[in-house]
Structures are given as structure tokens and as C-alpha cells.
Queue: 2 jobs
Job 1
Amino acid sequence: MKLHEYQSKDLLSRFGVAVPRGEVATNREEATKIAEELGGNVVVKAQVLMGGRGKAGGVKLFTNAAEAGEFAGNLIGKKLVSIQNPAGMIVEKVLVGETVDIAEEYYLSVLLDRAAQKLLVMLSKEGGMEIEQVAEERPEAIVRLNVDPAWGLCDFEVRDAVLAAGLPKAAQSQMAKMIKQLVKATIETDAEMIEINPVALTPDGKLIAADAKVSIDENALFRYPDFQSTQSDSAEDPIEAEAARRGIAYVRLGGEVGIMGNGAGLVMCSLDEVNAAGGKPANFLDVGGGAKAERVKSCLELILMDDNVKGLLINIFGGITRGEEVAKGILEGFSSLNIDLPVVARIEGTGAAEGLALLEGTKIVPAATMQEAAQKIVALTR
Ligand code: GDP
Ligand code: MN
């Protein structure tokens, strides 16, 4: 579960990381008031769970509270689109924080390195908005340090990493401290990732987290009642949030072919087939095992909440899930949801014949194989 920047900064400050003062606002008046309290020199930042907010126009500096408030008022309710998130996200809150004077921008993150069964600290002198580019073009500019969770960090390792990154003298011991704070925070909050980009070095030589992104392992949420209450609030996508409430595995992907299947593997395979046929999947959705008509309908409803969807591919391999139950759900969905899109269904296995019989004479196009289904729906959505 990703936390918003303001939540991430709160969390990090509990571990001693220096963060700028600031508060969240949900409207122009609140934003103006916070900006006034901070003296007018503020940065207004969209609180959406995606990277690249700066380039998307979601981060702006001000020297006057009224202008900051006006910008915040205009930003709230708008959709921000970035390279990292082409589908975009609506801004519901902004963070109004004191502006940090930035002399240099560094990159610091800690994440779970599953292959190494360790944590991985990444540090670079070249932080800021181009870190992806740095990683691609000059990976040597990013210093990597694995941390064994059983042993923790030794001082000399941290010092070596900081020196290898080539940070100026003024930043070195502060960065060493920040690395230890981040590792401690990662372990104690069951974080999957903590990223500070940029870590700002101010002209008077102080290190401060100008941005923060924390992602907590959802399976450990029961240990943190604090974060639990923010779970729905920090959902990345409104449809994904709704899916989570309904207990349905759904991931939005941005394409135009809506996909519903049973079993994660079958759904992944369907996504591949749609891609191979030249289409773009709109979503991953697993109706789950033994789905009844009601659940199928609920899944259709979710898929159709995405305006990009121009057609539907249904791929069911009956086992515990019965083909005729799925067919019933599809038909119920069709009549109650007013579905007016091309739909191709491939139903195999238990109850397939009964299911297909139910769909006969309707607008739903049958397909004998997964490939055929993918090709048909891609052709129909063109
Ligand atoms: P992101 O684009 O979503 O990662 O959002 P950031 O919070 O990192 O903001 C983007 C960029 O805006 C940063 O890389 C900084 O260059 C700049 N920025 C953000 N906060 C401040 C600030 O307090 N002072 C200054 N001078 N620049 C800032
Ligand atoms: Mn950033």
C-alpha cells in the first residue's frame, strides 16, 4: 500500500529524518490559510500516488499565500497525467509545505531486494526528476548497498557508500545518518520501499527530505492501525479501490479491451493474447474460483467503470467455476448494466456447453479458443 507524500513524511519524521513543515488541504481556503501560517514561501504539491508529479504540473513554488491558495484551488479536482501514469489520477488533496532552498538534489531509497533476500539501499548524487534516466544511462552513478536484516548496517559500510556516491563534505555524515534512519524505518514499519527524491542539500549545508514515497506491505497492515485507516484514502485508483472493497483482484492497465477471466494465470495469458492480437488490455481481473452469477455481474460493473473500455473479453475455464453460472452473470449484467459494447466469450470446461447455450441468440460472440477470442475482440474494438 502506497502512502501519500504527507503521510510518508510524517512517518519518516518519527524516525528522525528532517522534513519540511507543511500540512494538507482539500480546498483553496485551507491551502491559503496554511500558506499564510508558513509565511507565504511555500510549495504546493498534488497528493496523488504517482511519480512524476513535478513534470505533470503538480508541484509549484510560491512566494505569496494568495497565489499558492489559488493554484491549490485549481489543482484540486483536476486530473494529473504523467509518463509513469498515463491513465492519470484526480487530485483530492494538496500538501502545502515550506519551500526548501535547494543547492543540490540527491536520491536515496531503501527497498526489498527479494533476489538477494536483503534490503537494498540506493544512493545517488544525481537525484531530482531525472533519476530514471540516470539509472538507465549511467547506472554506475547509483551506489548500491545490500543490508542483511539479521546483521543490520555497519558504520563503515554506510561511510563507504556515502563516499562512493561522491557527496560533498557537508552532506556526508548527515547522509550516513539518514541512511540508517531509513533502514530502521523500513524494518520497523514493514515497508517494501522508502524513497526520498530529492534529498535536498540546502545552501547552509542541511539535508532535508523534499519528497517522500513510502510503500507498506499490505500483509503487515494489521500491525499498524494508524495506516489501516488511511488504506482506502491512499488507494491509487478509484476503480482499484472499489475492487479492493469488493474483494476482487483488479489492476487497471489503461488499454481498451476489458478482460475478465478466472484464475490469475489464465487472465495473464489472456492479456498476452490480446497484446499479440494487436490490442491493449484495459485491466487485469480475476473473478476468482467458483464465482457465482452475482460476482460475475459485480466484476462486469467494475470493468465498465473504466471509460477507456471499448470491448470485453471473457475467458473462463470451468472447474469449480461453472460455465453456466458465468453465463448467467453475463446476461444479468447485460440487462441491468445496459452493456452496449462488443463482447467475446470463450468458455471451456465444467458447464461450458450449458453456458454457451445460454448465450446463444444474444449479442455475445462465442469463441472456441483463447487466441480466437483475443483476435475477435481486438477486431471488434477497432
Ligand atoms: P515528483 O515529481 O512527483 O517526484 O515530486 P517532487 O516532490 O520530487 O517535486 C518535483 C521537483 O520539484 C523536485 O525534484 C524539486 O526539484 C522541486 N521541488 C519540490 N519541492 C521543492 C522545494 O521545497 N523547493 C524547491 N526549490 N524545489 C522543490
Ligand atoms: Mn520526487
Note: Residues 43, 45, 51-54, 59, 61, 99-100, 102, 105, 128-129, 197-198, 210-211 surround guanosine-5'-diphosphate (ligand 1) (CB under 6 Å).
Job 2
Amino acid sequence: MDSVEYHAALSALAWQVELGADECIGDAPVNRYDVPPPAPKPVPATVAPDGPVAPRSEDPVAVARAAAEAAQDLPALKAALAGYAHCELKRGARNLVFSDGVPGARVMIVGEAPGRDEDREGKPFVGRAGQLLDKMLGAIDLSREASVYITNVLPWRPPQNRDPKPEEIAMMQPFLYRHIALADPDVLVIVGNHACQALLGKRGITRLRGDWTQAQGKPAIPMFHPAYLLRNPAAKREAWADLLSLKARLRDG
Ligand code: URA
């Protein structure tokens, strides 16, 4: 709406309020005495000897596992995620954020979830934290253009950037595991607590960071999340040590 239309509309509204129109009324009348149609009956759960069980097709993790395992390459995995209907986050997101960088690169970075900028662009780590991540990678001669592949635990932005819920991580885990298998990196860089939770089954990044471990059959190093480093610049010292450790691993391995 241009500014003339805006002011004209505002004065028209003020005039109507002046005349006593202080309620929103729809064009079509509503019959409040109408009896609403009965709600659909819930699908009965099958009853196993040890209690009720949700129907198999309703188990979001089982559906995710089947969809992820059926994907034979990265485009198919992206399509499987796009078609996965059980994660509420999808409804509020503008874009599916699948990955960026070089598929098949020696280094695969796993972050947490898209933020506002990533949601808008459909690519991981493009906001302020992503710019810092690029600088950190550049400091050891790595880049998403040439030598790194990047993804997140969650492919859709959580509302208001809230933390991922355990059930969201559980639903996305089969896709993440398959993503790692198909991208087949030499090493994983696990950034932040939520990625540690998804790949190592534990949190506590301050203790975990810098210690090489295994995740999905790959050597993996947990590191501070760049968003944490933006808030706590003093921790860049440890991040630098971890980057040097990554560099040495790539040189020797
Ligand atoms: N933080 C993440 O963990 N991932 C992104 O893609 C952006 C910010």
C-alpha cells in the first residue's frame, strides 16, 4: 500500500470508529445456533499384549528412518526431507535449509539449526555466526567454496530461534545420519551443544570441545558454536586450538 492509500485508509477507519463501528463483522452472517459437525473419530491404536501402541505409520521417527534410508544420494535425501510432513517446524519456516559447500569434501560441519538469515536464504550459516565460521575456516585454509561441506541438525528454523526440542532432534536424526553417510567426509566438526546431543548423545561443549571422538563411524571434533564465540570472544582462544587440531588431523590423516 503506498502512503496516500495508507493515510486515506487510516482516516476512513477513524471515521467509522467515530460513527460507532467498534467491532469487526464479517461479510457473511454466522449462525451461532448451528450444531457443528461431529469431530472425526481418532484412529484406534493397535493393542499389543503389553499395552496400546501407536499405529506404525504414525511414528514420526520410524517414518523419518524409512524415508532417509531409501535416499540413495544427496538430492534424493533433500527431496525426502522436503516431503517429510511430521515436523511442525516446517510449517513456520520459509525454506528448507539442507546444506552448503562441497558435497564429498573431507570436512563436514554439523551445526544446530537455521536462524533468520539462513531461513531466508535457504543456506546454513550465512548470518553473523556464519561469517565468523567462514573466517575461522579461512584461518586454516579451508572454505565452503573449496573444501568444506556444511549442514545442521534441524533443516527448518525453530520459531524465535528457540532451542530444538528433543523430539525434533529425534525426528531429524535419521536424516542427519544418512546425510553423513552419503556425504562421506573424512572428519566431522560438531559445533555446539545441540549437535553434540544429536551426534554424541551428550551435551557439555565446554568439556567435550577439542577432544577427538567418533560419530557415525567418523573421527569427530566438537567445537564451540560460532554464535557462542560472538557472545564470548575470550573463548576464541580454545576455538583456535581446536582449529589447529583439525588442521593437523587433515594433514596427517
Ligand atoms: N547457527 C547454526 O547452528 N546453523 C546455522 O545455519 C546458523 C546459525
Note: Residues 111 and 152 are 4 Å apart (CA to CA).
